[in-house]
TrEMBL record:
It comes from Roseibium alexandrii (strain DSM 17067 / NCIMB 14079 / DFL-11) (Labrenzia alexandrii). The chain crosses the membrane at residues 26-43. This is Cytochrome c2. Pfam families: Cytochrom_C (PF00034). The keyword DNA damage does not apply. Signal peptide: none annotated. One of its GO terms (molecular function) is metal ion binding. InterPro entries: Cyt_c-like_dom (IPR009056), Cyt_c-like_dom_sf (IPR036909), Cyt_c_1A/1B (IPR002327). Residues 46-149, 175-251 form the Cytochrome c domain. Keywords: Electron transport, Heme, Iron, Membrane, Metal-binding, Transmembrane, Transmembrane helix, Transport.
Length: 253
C-alpha cells in the first residue's frame, strides 16, 4: 500500500471523502515541491549593483570593503557562513551571541528573515533598524553582501591607527569610566542602559572611536539634532573620553 492509499484508507473509493483526502494529499505534495523550487531563487535573483545602492542607508552603522572596521555595528565583509555574534572585536548583544552558539550562521535565508524584521528574528538585538519589508530589495542587499564575502577579508580592528580627525585628541585619552558613569545621568534619560532601542538608538557597547566622533559631530553642528547639540556643547575632551569609556564598557543585554 503506497502513502496515498494509507492516508485515504477507511474511505470508499469514489466517495466524496475519499476524493477530498486524495486531493488534500496531492495539494500538500505540490505545495512542498513549490517551496523547494522557490527557495534557491533568493540566492540567485539579487542584483549586487542594486544592492550596493540600497546599502548606502546601512553605512551609518556598517562598514564594508577595503579597510572596513567595526563601528556602531560590525563590519560586514566575509559575512556569509559566519556564525552569528562571533566577529572578533565587536561587542554583540547576548541574544545575538546565544544565537551563534546555537549554530545559526548568516546565509541567504537567515539574512532574509533578519533584514525583514530584525527584532522579531532576534529578540534582544541591539540593531535599531526596523526592517526592510520589500523582498526584492532584501534580495539585492543579500546579493551585494555575498559578493563582498568573496573578496579579501577586512583588516583586523586591532591594526587600526588613529588618524587626524575630529575628536582625535579625545581619542588619545584613556577615559575615566567612573567619571563617565557620573556624567551619564543625563544620557540615560533617553538612551537605555539595557541596550534597548525603542525609537532612540542604543549607545551601549559602542566602540570608543565612533562614539567620540559622533559626540564631536553633534558638538560642532555637523550632525543636526538640537537636543544632542545642547547636551554636547559644553563637553570637553576629558568628559567625552570618559563617556566613551563608560558606555563602551557596558555589555549589551
Amino acid at each position: 500500500m503506497d502513502q496515498t492509499q494509507k492516508n485515504t484508507a477507511g474511505f470508499c473509493a469514489g466517495s466524496p471523502d475519499w476524493k477530498h483526502a486524495a486531493w488534500t494529499q496531492a495539494t500538500i505534495w505540490i505545495a512542498g515541491a513549490m517551496l523547494l523550487l522557490a527557495a534557491p531563487a533568493m540566492a540567485s535573483d539579487g542584483d549586487p549593483i542594486k544592492g550596493e545602492k540600497l546599502f548606502r542607508a546601512c553605512k551609518a552603522c556598517h562598514q564594508v570593503g577595503t579597510n572596513a572596521r567595526n563601528g556602531v555595528g560590525p563590519h560586514l565583509d566575509g559575512l556569509f557562513e559566519r556564525p552569528a555574534g562571533t566577529l572578533e572585536g565587536f561587542k554583540y548583544s547576548s541574544a545575538m551571541k546565544k544565537l551563534g552558539s546555537e549554530g545559526m550562521v548568516w546565509n541567504e535565508f537567515s539574512l532574509d528573515l533578519y533584514l525583514e524584521k530584525p527584532r522579531e528574528y532576534v529578540p534582544g538585538t541591539r540593531m535599531s533598524y526596523r526592517g526592510m519589508p520589500g523582498r526584492q530589495d532584501r534580495t539585492h542587499i543579500i546579493a551585494y553582501l555575498r559578493e563582498l564575502s568573496k573578496a579579501e577579508p577586512a583588516s583586523k580592528p586591532e591594526l587600526e591607527t588613529v588618524t587626524p580627525e575630529m575628536g582625535a585628541v579625545a581619542m588619545q585619552i584613556n577615559g575615566d569610566m567612573a567619571y563617565g558613569e557620573y556624567l551619564s545621568s543625563e544620557c540615560v534619560t533617553c538612551h537605555q542602559v539595557s541596550g534597548r532601542a525603542d525609537g532612540i538608538p542604543s549607545i551601549i557597547g559602542w566602540p570608543k572611536k565612533p562614539f567620540i566622533r559622533a559626540l564631536f559631530e553633534y558638538k560642532t553642528n555637523v550632525r543636526s539634532h538640537q537636543v544632542m547639540q545642547n547636551m554636547t556643547v559644553n563637553l570637553g575632551n576629558e568628559e567625552i573620553a570618559a563617556l566613551a569609556a563608560y558606555f563602551g564598557s557596558i555589555d549589551p543585554q
